[in-house]
Amino acid sequence: MKQTLQCPVGSTRAKAAWMVVIAGGLMDVVWAVLLNYSRGLTVLWPSVFALASMTVSYLLYVLSLKLLPAGTAYTVFTGIGTAGTGLIGILFLDEPAGGWRIFFIGILLLGIVGLKLASGCETVQPKGGELI
User: Fold this and answer.
1) Pfam family example for this protein (predicted)?
2) 40 phi-psi bin (left φ>0, alpha ψ -120 to 50, beta other)
């Protein structure tokens, strides 16, 4: 039997869940950049911090699933990671900043915002767990 929770987009629960997804997406950027500095996990401290931030990133994503639909949360989570890593690469890591690349990062960001605005936080209560 499915048990459904509905919370309006502006509710405290919805805001908390979205903040958790955003924090997880930002941690996704952190580990991706640190992985670059770890040189294939051969440099100790960047490797340690990359693996730690990767763990935190996915734990935040999993926590958000208590209120948000998995598909939407994962798309926003990975989109923030993808766009953020691309922007960090352009701004700080001397990666090429072609017009098409910037255009498509912008499209990705618009898609993330659109998904967030189009989503409420109706979901099925997880097995054996309390909702946030």
Assistant:
1) Multi_Drug_Res
2) left
Query: In DSSP terms, which residues pair with 123 in a beta bridge?
Result: 5
Residue 131 lies in a domain: no
Distance CA 34, CA 97 (A): 20
Q: Is 98 inside a domain boundary?
A: yes
pTM for the complete prediction?
0.80
Residue type (1 letter), 116 = K
In a domain, 130, yes or no: no
Beta bridge partner(s), residue 4: 124
Tokens matching residue 104: 């498509």
| Averaged pLDDT for residues 104-124 | 80
Report which of 80, 86, 99 is spatially closest to residue 33, judged by C-alpha positions. 86
